[in-house]
Amino acid sequence: MATIADVARHAGVSSSTVSYVLNGKRPISEETRRRVRRSVAALGYHPNAGARALAGRRSHIIALVVPLRTDVYVPVMMEIAVSVTTAARRHGYDVLLVTNDEGPAGVRRVATSGLADGVILMDVELGDKRVPALRAAGTQAVLIGLPDDPLGLSCVDHDFAAAGALSADDLADLGHRDVAFIGYEPGVYARHAGYAERTLAGFRERAQLRGLRFLHRPCEGTYEGTAGTLARILADRPETTGFVVQNERAIGPLLSLLRSGGRPVPEAASVVALCPDRLAEQHSPALTSVSGSAQELGRVAVEQMMSRLAAAQRQEQPVDERVLLPPVLTERQSSGPAGATPSNAKDPS
């Protein structure tokens, strides 16, 4: 276990300076305080009861709990993290990155350590077990995601239900009647990831309202996994002409498999992807997509945190904000009117 002397050596300061930073009894330059806090975080030093007097003061650090999973799309998660860091710096705050591999225990440890003034949580599940840990710790918290019970917390997320509905509307407006929703791998739904569950629910509700016949199939996202998913869809519903994809890894394989199977896009099949615009534009044909700004998620989360911290500083009850960012549908070259007959349709597997 790290000691205060270890922190001092790591930060290149004296032990007394570390103590002053932790207890706030003497003025220390901002540069030195920041260096000491980084050393505390790097070494996993836990202040003792005396040092925890810092809890009544501001550390000007926000902890950001980022996902450590193989089933998340890393570029988007990193874009959110960079946005949080940039927005925090504009308010004079540093960001301490914490992985979510420890679950509720890790969140509890960070929230009660006195290292951070507040915690921003990413990759939120509907019944996320980390949320009660945040409430119990009494720290200011913001979620990038929407759990089933957000009481006592501020939340910001994309309106994934609206995104699912937009994708169903787009295909229905083009005259498609048999459509398939290709989602993330089964584990994402098993852990009830909010973004996946809410998108599917929004799609399902709107598809039923528009009279679409639809299938939902989870997909591993590899070429072989996508081939198997597409084969099952066409075996169950060979008339399928519209595809909604919420799985970044499956997009490329799906376009290739449809083309090689005699169902070229958009001539014989339409594809609408729920993905970042940058990714949609990289494919050929460029994808009609439903997207939202990852940067805006990070910015709003930090603004919510600043609002909560300011209220707490005034000894007022923070307002629990809930912000859902509206999705944007961008028509490109991967969707077209229904009615084309697949040419030389083959088994995609």
From TrEMBL:
InterPro entries: HTH_LacI (IPR000843), LacI/GalR-like_sensor (IPR046335), Lambda_DNA-bd_dom_sf (IPR010982), Peripla_BP_I (IPR028082). The keyword Secreted does not apply. Residues 2-56 form the HTH lacI-type domain. GO terms for molecular function: DNA-binding transcription factor activity; transcription cis-regulatory region binding. SMART domains: HTH_LACI. SUPFAM superfamilies: lambda repressor-like DNA-binding domains, Periplasmic binding protein-like I. Residues 312-349 are annotated as: Disordered. Keywords: DNA-binding, Transcription, Transcription regulation. Residues 331-349 have a biased composition (Polar residues). It comes from the Bacteria. The keyword Membrane does not apply. Pfam families: LacI, Peripla_BP_3. This is LacI family transcriptional regulator. It comes from Streptomyces dysideae. The lineage of its organism: Bacteria, Bacillati, Actinomycetota, Actinomycetes, Kitasatosporales.
